[in-house]
């Protein structure tokens, strides 16, 4: 199945930055510098978009990172459709972000219902605010074989890390815990968690492909919120 970018402006009517499609082409060809440029152009917009949807800055920052990871895994399925190639690139990333926000808010609703039956705390209203005229999560589904191959490469790299670093990466990236939550679970200072995470991501960056290396380095520089 091929996923299409629609070219619609996805952040409150803002048009896409010029040159996104050229950067996307280079990135898809394995140019790590193009990925860094894409990140610089879209990360602030994605962050603002997600903060508006989930109303939690820390959660939005985690969702931005998850967006880049998911987009990287699905990158081979990006395809331009519409009059604006730059808009299609922006729509691609914002669609992934939107679907992750939906999953996040639904998880909050489920958790709140378990803790406080009959009180959704307004989460239904937030779900209603999320644009519904974008491709569905099924449209962004990546091939199982590709996902398994990438997961295998990442897990092989993880196995080379010291146990303390590996545990933090697994909690952060595979279980979705924040640095503060990891610190609480492991009963160590959050600063120590961030130091270990930074070292782990730098080590992983040496062992993975150039494009994924650039992605991991960017996440490490951001402190792995």
From TrEMBL:
- Keyword Transcription regulation annotated: yes
Q: Where are the transmembrane segments?
A: none
Q: Which UniProt keywords apply?
A: DNA-binding, Sigma factor, Transcription, Transcription regulation
- Which Gene3D superfamilies does the UniProt entry name for this protein? 1.10.1740.10, Winged helix-like DNA-binding domain superfamily/Winged helix DNA-binding domain
Where in this chain does the record put each RNA polymerase sigma factor 70 region 4 type domain? 153-204
Q: Which domain of life is it from?
A: Bacteria
Q: Where is the RNA polymerase sigma-70 region domain?
A: 40-110
Q: What family is this protein classified in?
A: Belongs to the sigma-70 factor family. ECF subfamily.
Which PANTHER family does the record match to this protein?
ECF RNA POLYMERASE SIGMA FACTOR SIGL, RNA POLYMERASE ECF-TYPE SIGMA FACTO
What is this protein's record name? Sigma-70 family RNA polymerase sigma factor
Species source reads Nannocystis radixulma
